[in-house]
Amino acid sequence: MTKTQIATSSHPEVETAVAELRQGLRGASPRLVLFFASPRYAPAAIAAAMERAFSPAVVIGCTTAGEITSGAMLKGSVVAMAFGTVDEVAVQVVSGLRAGTSPVKEALAKLTRHFGHAASGLDPNRYVGLVLVDGLSGAEEQVMDALSTGSDLTFVGGSAGDDLAFRGTHVFAEGKAYEDAAVLAILRIDRGFAVLKTQSFKGTGRHLVATRVRTGERVVEEFNHRPAAEAYAEALGVRVESLPGMFMSHPLGLMVGDEPFVRSPQRVLGTDVKFYCAIAEGMELEVLRSTDIVEVTRAALEGQKQTLGGLAGLVNFNCILRTLELEKKAQSEAYGRLFSEVPTIGFSTYGEAYLGHINQTATMLALR
Amino acid sequence: MRKATVTGTVKGMLEKIIAVRGKANPTFVDATRAKLILKGLNPAKFTTSTPDDPELVARVRAVAAEFGVNL
């Protein structure tokens, strides 16, 4: 068993950047290397170079809208983690997500068979799932739905980014870069782990019920039987023209007990509102208001540290909207410093995965 | 004579999904309830008095099949 190690490179050339990562992870002989790469690196080139550098380890990753490492939020870099505490890993690539018929459940069955079990037979205290999805596929709900109904395991992860260009996002496995695909992995971690979900919002007590939707397009036409934009604006006490300016600070929360699963609005389309994830007809949502990302995340990390008796590593799937809010409030450095003491990699995502597809959240895999 | 209204079927179906997938483990029970809410089916919104809507009953039956639960 080796410890969890991380490495970072900001060198613009793929081969040199990967060589720097290899140097940074020297001495490690992990079963799994996870990496997150800026879209400045040619996807196919960096996928192949990482595979060559770290084989026979399983090497997976994706492109980003910014990277995270211990102590800093980065741009134009590649970050990698050599998992010292992963005892076994299996990976599947699921392609053809946009067609809507992707065989996620079949891939899940193959993954669990690797460990000699049916999907329901793996102990969620020893096994955890990782999921990386093409962030422009619009298929995250379908992927997470299949994983959630098909397994008792927790799958945590995020949607690949491309620095807000919205032209192409990639996931990496087997030395290749894939679009319109998801990489699924199941990790056996006997030493222990936890999955953390944190978002920095409070409820306002104001509720909206989605009464008419186009779920597949992530569009709500009506809240409370009224044009969606009008009802949303009224709930915030503003005119419809001012609504987009309130989106980042006042998204909607699907409440599970006191815990919001955030649905972030993207834009107003006529009288409709388009979101970054799907809302089902009949869903009751609470209007949220933002709080302090740094302080809430600090408390969440401290709580997890106490629960696990220390943190040996963290993988942080941090929503790009959180990253933008941190930049707007000049808190990026403070956020990066939260991870100074723990080997951490992460990236700014186009969506986060935990039980379902969510927004404006950080989901994390915490290693003991 | 008033025709009797059938009620509570959806509530019963959702509770069975939670019981089967929850496996009497509080963590699994909470996770299953959350997964249902994320699919737009909040068990707390249905009671034994909720009138049966055939479309909704069919939808919950399909969701149960996705969860691998025989109703």
Topology:
The complex is a heterodimer of chains A (368) and B (71).
Chain A (H helix, E strand, L loop, with lengths): L4 E5 L4 H11 L7 E6 L5 H12 L3 E6 L3 E3 L2 E3 L3 E6 L4 E8 L8 H11 L12 E7 L6 H11 L4 E5 L11 E3 L2 E3 L2 E8 L4 E6 L2 E14 L4 E5 L2 E2 H9 L15 E5 L2 E5 L1 E5 L2 E4 L8 E7 L2 H16 L4 E7 H9 L3 H6 L6 E6 L2 E3 L1 E3 L3 E6 L1
Parallel strand pairs in A: 2-3, 8-9, 22-23
Antiparallel strand pairs in A: 1-6, 2-6, 3-10, 4-5, 4-23, 7-12, 8-12, 9-24, 10-11, 13-26, 14-15, 14-21, 15-16, 15-20, 17-18, 17-21, 19-20, 22-26, 24-25
Helix pairs in contact in A: 1-2
Chain B lengths: L8 H14 L3 H13 L15 H13 L5
Plain-language structure description:
The complex is a heterodimer of chains A (368) and B (71). With 368 residues, chain A is an alpha+beta fold. Chain A folds into two domains: 5-197 and 295-367, no CATH class; 201-290, no CATH class. Chain A has eight helices and 26 strands. Chain A has helices spanning 14-24, 43-54, 104-114, 140-150, 228-236, 293-308, 320-328, 332-337, and strands at 5-9, 32-37, 58-63, 67-69, 72-74, 78-83, 88-95, 127-133, 155-159, 171-173, 176-178, 181-188, 193-198, 201-214, 219-223, 226-227, 252-256, 259-263, 265-269, 272-275, 284-290, 313-319, 344-349, 352-354, 356-358, 362-367. In chain A, a hairpin with a 4-residue loop joins strand 14 (201-214) and strand 15. Chain B is an all-alpha fold and 71 residues long. Chain B has one domain. Chain B is 56% helix and 0% strand. The model of chain B has no long low-confidence stretch (mean pLDDT 92). At the A-B interface, helix 4 of A face helix 2 of B.
Brief sketch in words of this structure:
The complex is a heterodimer of chains A (368) and B (71). By secondary structure, chain A is α+β, with helices and mostly antiparallel strands.
